Amino acid sequence: MINLILFGPPGSGKGTQAAKLVEKYHLLHISTGDLFRYEMGNDTPLGKKAKSYIEKGELVPDEVTVGMLRNKVEANPDAAGFIFDGFPRTIPQAEALDELMAEKGSRISALLMLDVPDEELVKRLLERGKTSGRKDDTDESIIRNRIEVYKSETAPVFDYYQAKDKAEKVYGLGSIEEIFERLCNRIDALVA
Ligand code: ADP
């Protein structure tokens, strides 16, 4: 089983690359952001709870996020492996994920971080906000808050997996195809 964490700040291209990786490696893509947007779209109790945080550019509390992620993983016992996108975003989430994988008799193979400078992130997110319908992409101060939250709460997750020798940085500027190739090279090295 290959279980990847696709990591990086908001706007670093995780969703775009995940879609391409799924096609090539036949892994199940789990994006906590997409799951929250689905819940919000259906106005479920979970969606209502998440909305107040997401619209401010803050993280949804760990217990809510971990519970949702666990349900999704457990609903797919036959998956050949997973691509986690937007999860884990905090150390407690990383610990919960490791525990969940261990329960399945599996583990995280690698964390691949898309490395992109802040100014490029802001530019990409504002551009995406013109068409995505995402409120959290239209306001520059909310975008900057998301980047700050990434630095303070999420970046330590990189160190957590680095200590296990599983974290790698991939340069995230260039064409979508170029970046995809960089990621594939790392993944192929894992299975070789
Ligand atoms: P981005 O494109 O900014 O990386 P996502 O689509 O992954 O954003 O997530 C959008 C929002 O959903 C985040 O800003 C956050 O509020 C919430 N969210 C997504 N994943 C998590 C998580 N693992 N923990 C807490 N909140 C999350």
Give a description of the structure:
The protein is of the alpha/beta class. The chain has one domain (2-191): 3-Layer(aba) Sandwich (Rossmann fold), CATH 3.40.50.300. It has helices at 14-25, 32-41, 45-54, 62-74, 91-103, 118-132, 140-162, 176-191; strands at 2-7, 28-31, 81-85, 110-115, 167-171. Helix 1 packs across helix 8 (176-191) and helix 2 packs across helix 3 (45-54). The chain is globular, with a radius of gyration of 16 Å. The chain starts with a strand and ends with a helix. Bound molecules: adenosine-5'-diphosphate. The site of adenosine-5'-diphosphate has 17 residues, from helix 2 and helix 3.
List keywords for this structure.
192 residues; binds adenosine-5'-diphosphate; 5-stranded parallel beta sheet; 5 strands; globular; Rossmann fold; 58% helix; alpha/beta; 8 helices
Q: Which spans of ≥5 residues are poorly predicted at pLDDT below 50?
A: none
**What number is the mean pLDDT?**
97
If strands are numbered along the chain, what order do they take across the biggest sheet?
2-3-1-4-5
The CATH class, by name, is Alpha Beta
- Rounded to an integer in angstroms, the radius of gyration calculated over CA atoms is 16 Å
Largest pleated sheet: 5 strands, parallel
Small ligands present: adenosine-5'-diphosphate
Structural class: alpha/beta
Distance N terminus to C terminus? 13 Å
CATH topology: Rossmann fold
Number of strands: 5
Specify the CATH homologous superfamily: P-loop containing nucleotide triphosphate hydrolases
Shape: globular
